[in-house]
Each structure stands twice: as C-alpha cells, then as structure tokens.
Amino acid sequence: MTRPVTVLGFDFGMSRIGIAVGQSITNTASPLTIVTARDGIPNWDDIDGFITSWQPSYLVVGDPINMDGSDSEMAGLARKFARRIEARWKIPSQMVDERLSSSEAHALSTATHIDDVAAVLITETWLAIHAARAEKD
C-alpha cells in the first residue's frame, strides 16, 4: 500500500497564481488562495508559507497547452515557474495538462477570479493520474 500524498497545485498566470491543496486519501483538492504576481513572479514568501504549512510531496503546475496539443505562449512560462519552485524547495514538480480547466472553473464558480478553482481541477487531475498509476503497480 502506498503512503498518503499531499500535493500543492498551481494555476500559473502572469498576474495571479491560484493555489490548491490535495491529498491522495480521497483524491480531492481544496482551494487555498490566489496570490498576486508581477510578470509571473509571485511574492515567494507567500508561497513559502503554504509549502511550510502543508509539507507537500509534490508541486503540480498546470500546463497551458493548446487544444491541438501544441504549446501555448504561456506554456514555457508555466514550465519555468515549475522549475523555479522545484529548485527553491527541492520538492518534485510535475506539469499537468490544464486544457479546459479555466472554462470548467468558470462553470463551477461564481467568483470573478477562478484561479484557485482552476488549481483545484489541476490538482485533482494529477491525483487521478497518480491513483491510476498506483493501481497498475
């Protein structure tokens, strides 16, 4: 039996980054917050607090690829963000296809900014993939 896993998920954006926390016991996630960013760079102290509090095993970042599977303009920036958070905290980061997460987040939320809801969907997608892999092993 595999041990429970805690994951922090990020919906990267140039001005806002949604953050969610998920766990593998129920394969669900909850929104934590939306942090502001300047040209894609957050106040790292804000993110430090969440990582210290939740002690995640993985950091998951939405990969904003186009519907046809090609890279979007934001994909390179999101991947750079993932590399930065992995290097900063020495916690593995993984990219998750986030196609349709924003439109689904809009459908699930009445809030103006849905970045944290999108982070929930990204995190739950990773958890579902992780659970499927664990079942095969």
CATH-assigned homologous superfamily: YqgF/RNase H-like domain
What sort of overall outline do the alpha carbons produce when their principal axes are compared? globular
Query: What is the terminal-to-terminal distance?
Result: 10 Å
Can you tell me the CATH topology? Nucleotidyltransferase, domain 5
Order of helices and strands: EEEEHEHEHH
Radius of gyration: 14 Å
In round numbers, the mean pLDDT is: 88
Q: What proportion of the residues form beta strands (DSSP E)?
A: 25-35%
Number of strands: 6
Q: How would you describe what is shown here?
A:
This protein is an alpha/beta fold and 137 residues long. It has a single domain, classed as Nucleotidyltransferase, domain 5 (2-Layer Sandwich), CATH 3.30.420.140. The protein is 41% helix and 28% strand. The protein has four helices and six strands, in the order ββββαβαβαα. A six-stranded mixed β-sheet has the order 4-3-2-1-5-6, sandwiched between helices. Helix 2 links the parallel strand 5 and strand 6. Helix 3 crosses helix 4. The radius of gyration is 14 Å and the shape is globular.
Descriptive tags:
six-stranded mixed beta sheet; 137 residues; Nucleotidyltransferase, domain 5; single chain; 6 strands; alpha/beta
